[in-house]
Amino acid sequence: MLAPSRPSERSAGDSPLTRAFFEKRENLLLFLAARTRCMATAEDLLQDLYLKVAAAEADEADVRAPSALLYRMATNLLVDHVRSRQRSSRRSADWRRETRAFVGAEEVAGDPPADEAVISRQRVRLLAEAVAELPLQMGKAFRLHKLEGRSQKETAEAMGVSVKMIEQHIQAAVQRLAQRLRS
Q: Is the pTM of this model over 0.90?
């Protein structure tokens, strides 16, 4: 649900808080954009604010200062957003510390040695050649399912065959490829 921006999109029975939201919408957007320094984030927060305002209509008692309440709600959303980003940043830093090697304060490259990279590229080339040499239907089933990530059902529909036939094609392709790569 998008926050309507035109008065024609609002219902006649809007609450004072909803009316204040639409009256202050552009100012609220600028308020949030100035604090986040990102218009897209400000628009997302404004959308969240609209959802909270729409949900609050049923619970709303007599709001004496709807504009002040809107700015307080926007500020609270902004605080929640900042805290969420900080938690995410800490999680990323923790993950990086746990999954990367460090010598002192310097991160050690986790790239494989050059000889292993060359061997990996050769194996990928051999696999690509082997897939290209598969019979037409078998190769197509293998590419759609294993390389493009389609389900067996989606692959069967795309090829106009049964799921059982796709299973057989894939099983045969895997056996041929394994045999080819062993030799």
A: no
